Recover the amino acids of this structure.
């Protein structure tokens, strides 16, 4: 059972760093949203102590509550803060209090209910979670299987990202990797629940997922999404002592590993100019910058050109921190700013390795009428295509 005291302990530990803030403003200068909205992390931090007190008394600060859902938890402010303050964690703690008091936007409430009732933010039936894999040769995860491929919610239910999952399966099969999936038994990893402030739901999902991983003796897990990778790698061990994995990998890391023994044989294809977007939860949160680039550079005929802001300075797509499920105004769409940076490289393809990034960038391509200038492709799709010799594969 989830311990309420443990949930409160998590919230308190996050809030402790607030006392270190001395209002230097580096966080506001780093925040992607500060350039296009009225959201300023420094101002938020300075008012948060008072706002928390008013919230506990039952009179929440509406001006702060309105801005509360802007943060994408991209971690740019954390990377640059000279005092080790973690504004995203503090903001999530305030969201937790709002969730407890039932004072949250309808979209957030709907998302959390979907995760609770159907174990995915889309609210789609659990019985349809593995429909994408019906015609593929994928075995169910069993004891002794080397890798558990944790597919995730977006690749299970979103048609666009189902293509990514299929591409990755093609790669793993081609390389002879021993892997299995949980099928309809797979649950949400809980990332969105935690970012939106539903700590109890996150810990429940961590507990349930840990149980099934333990029952199957899964020791190595590979994920499609950086968000799933992040919670398995960094957050499950904090709340679930029984969660023990020898190895947690994002699929880009596994692909790099498969390059070394030469298990992936690539065919020649047309020369392509591509640029790579570093997802926040792969890059700034976990320092994984080089594996995707190593894979791209190993593909014949691929020319990788960097955007001006790359690696640690990568500009957020706007989908993290639960923002995928919160209504975004047209003038707040970070994905469109980032897409313009990609267009400036004259690349034919914008490559990423995160389901949220793929969704947001494809929407931006449509909004900016850039279909004839650039295509959004996941790294797994490009690798799979080079195995088949065609970008359409």
């Amino acid at each position: 059972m989830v311990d309420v005291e443990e949930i409160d302990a998590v919230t308190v530990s996050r809030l402790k760093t607030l006392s270190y803030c001395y209002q230097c403003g580096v966080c506001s200068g780093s925040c992607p949203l500060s350039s296009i909205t009225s959201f300023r992390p420094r101002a938020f931090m300075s008012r948060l102590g008072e706002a928390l007190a008013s919230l506990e008394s039952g009179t929440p600060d509406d001006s702060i509550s309105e801005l509360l859902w802007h943060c994408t938890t991209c971690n740019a402010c954390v990377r640059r803060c000279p005092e080790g303050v973690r504004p995203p964690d503090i903001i999530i703690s305030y969201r937790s209090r709002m969730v407890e008091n039932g004072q949250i936007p309808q979209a957030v409430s709907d998302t959390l209910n979907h995760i609770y009732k159907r174990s995915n933010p889309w609210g789609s039936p659990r019985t349809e979670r593995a429909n994408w894999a019906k015609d593929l040769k994928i075995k169910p995860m069993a004891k002794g299987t080397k890798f558990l491929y944790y597919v995730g919610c977006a690749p299970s239910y979103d048609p666009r990202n189902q293509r990514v999952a299929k591409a990755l399966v093609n790669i793993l099969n081609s390389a002879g990797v021993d892997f299995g999936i949980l099928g309809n038994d797979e649950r949400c990893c809980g990332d969105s629940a935690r970012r939106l402030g539903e700590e109890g739901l996150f810990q429940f999902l961590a507990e349930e997922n840990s149980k099934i991983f333990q029952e199957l003796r899964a020791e190595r897990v590979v994920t499609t999404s950086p968000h799933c990778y992040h919670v398995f790698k960094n957050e499950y061990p904090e709340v679930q002592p029984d969660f023990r994995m020898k190895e947690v990998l994002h699929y880009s890391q596994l692909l790099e590993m498969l390059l070394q023994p030469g298990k992936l044989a690539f065919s020649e294809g047309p020369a392509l100019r591509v640029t790579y977007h570093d997802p926040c939860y792969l890059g700034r949160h976990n320092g994984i910058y080089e594996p995707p680039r190593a894979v791209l550079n190993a593909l014949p005929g691929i020319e990788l050109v960097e955007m001006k802001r790359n690696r640690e300075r990568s500009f957020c797509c706007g989908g993290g921190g639960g923002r995928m499920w919160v209504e975004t105004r047209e003038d707040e769409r970070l994905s469109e700013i980032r897409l313009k940076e990609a267009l400036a490289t004259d690349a034919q393809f914008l490559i990423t390795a995160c389901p949220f990034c793929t969704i947001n960038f494809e929407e931006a391509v449509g909004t900016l009428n850039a279909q004839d200038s650039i295509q959004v492709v996941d790294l797994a799709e490009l690798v799979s295509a080079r195995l088949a010799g065609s970008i359409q594969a």
Q: What stands out?
A: Residues 389-393 have pLDDT under 50 and may be disordered. The first strand starts at residue 147 and ends at 150. The longest helix spans residues 199-215.
